[in-house]
Amino acid sequence: MIFSRQTRRLARALGTGLASIALLALVVGCERGDAKSSKQAPAAPTQTVIVVEVPQRTVSVGADFVARTEAVPTVEIRARVSGVLEQVRFREGSEVKQGQTLFVIQQEEYKASLQTARAQLAKAEADLLRAKDASVVDRARAGLDQAKADLGKDRADVARYRPLVEQQAIPKQDLDTALSREQASAAGVAAAEAALKDSILAQRTAIQLAEAAVESGKAAVTQADLNVKYTTIESPISGIISKLAVDTGNLVGKGEPTLLATVSAIDPIFADFAITEADYLRLVKRIPGLGRGEVPRDRAPALELILSDGTVFPQKGRPIFVDRAIDQKTGTIQVRAEFPNPQRVLRAGQFGRVRAVTEEVPNAILVPQVAVQDLQGAKTVMVVGEDGKVAMRTLTLRQPYQDFYIVAAGINPGERVIVEGIQKVRPGVVVKAELKPAQPAPPPPAAAPSAPPASKPKSGS
Q1: Contact 379, 440 (CB under 8 A)
Q2: Tens digits of per-residue pLDDT, 228-255?
Q3: Cα–Cα distances in angstroms (integers) from residue 197 to residues 140, 222, 307, in the given order
Q4: What number does CATH give the domain 81-100+231-261?
Q5: Nearest-CA neighbor of 337 among 281, 299, 311, 285?
Q6: Is the omega angle on the peptide bond into residue 413 within 30 degrees of 0, that is, cis?
Q7: pTM above 0.90, yes or no
Q8: Longest dimension (CA), the chain
Q9: Which CATH class is domain 110-229?
Q10: Distance in angstroms (rounded) separating the CA atoms of residues 158 and 256
Q11: Tens digits of per-residue pLDDT, 188-213?
């Protein structure tokens, strides 16, 4: 019994001690937790982002079209007569003028042929002059007149002798002789008339033959003269000439016209490109007369040419030709534009892009392209409200314009979008916004599209 009481007292004392130890551990743990909390870093500072206000303005929107330059006209210089190429009077790749002598082919043979043709022409002209001589016809006509006179005399004798014979004043033999002479004179008249007709016909035939010979001689002289001229080959147009296709001393023009060189017009130069049917309809509305191919020459040039290195050609151009029909396979139509080329920078066959203003967008809402993100196929921007809180907006975009997008829906003018520091924020956080001006370039004149930076060409003007 005494042992049981001592055991119970010892158990109570042990429980009291354990409770005290637990309480002490709890107090120490709380103190340590408070100390640890007091040692934590201070709250993170507010993030700073760069924002721009969304502008709204009327803009001229355009498009770029893949183009290739063409030199019109381009002429192949060929040898039209055969002979040895004696002289080359130009420098390869240089600019030549219309009418400038380029080549000289051996001429002696053709000059001799020209002299022969001229001599034959002179002979034909002399023959014509002789054929036109009327002396032969005049002699035949005089013979006819003489025969007619003889016939008249013989008829008069017959008329005089007949009553004398009836009166037996003269012998009948005299009348018979007169009748014979009358018949002979009549035959002589018929023969003289036939001779006159033959003379006239012969003269007419001789004249026609002589005239034909003269014409043939003139043609021979013309051909021979042309052959002599063909030995001196001149440039038919002004432009840039190619390298030589045949060296001096070679036989050219034997059997077929030999290609010697090619000349291409260089100023102006043309750019051919294809546009869609929709772009064509917008373009003809902006450029009256384009559909008829009658763009006024005094209209300010409206097209730009972006070269293969990304630079913008300094001279603006104008469309001058639209093809007759839409290509059913591609749904496009061919357009040709004319560009001045005073510095001879452009050459035929270069590739580039023609930029044209196709429409005016009034009151366009513009968002910088750097502010737009692609989130699972949706175009979004981060907007900072007046309270500094970030919100995400989903946009409906139309097309690029310079360094902006034209927005159809999703944001209002004047709202602030983040352009720098987008990766540091998320919707709902509060940020410190620093405003950065972001206005698009001034609008171009109505007839001419504006140019983006040469180092980063855009599809919008």
Answers
A1: no
A2: 999 999 999 999 999 998 899 999 988 8
A3: 9, 37, 83
A4: 2.40.50.100
A5: 299
A6: no
A7: no
A8: 235
A9: mainly alpha
A10: 82
A11: 888 888 887 888 888 788 889 988 99
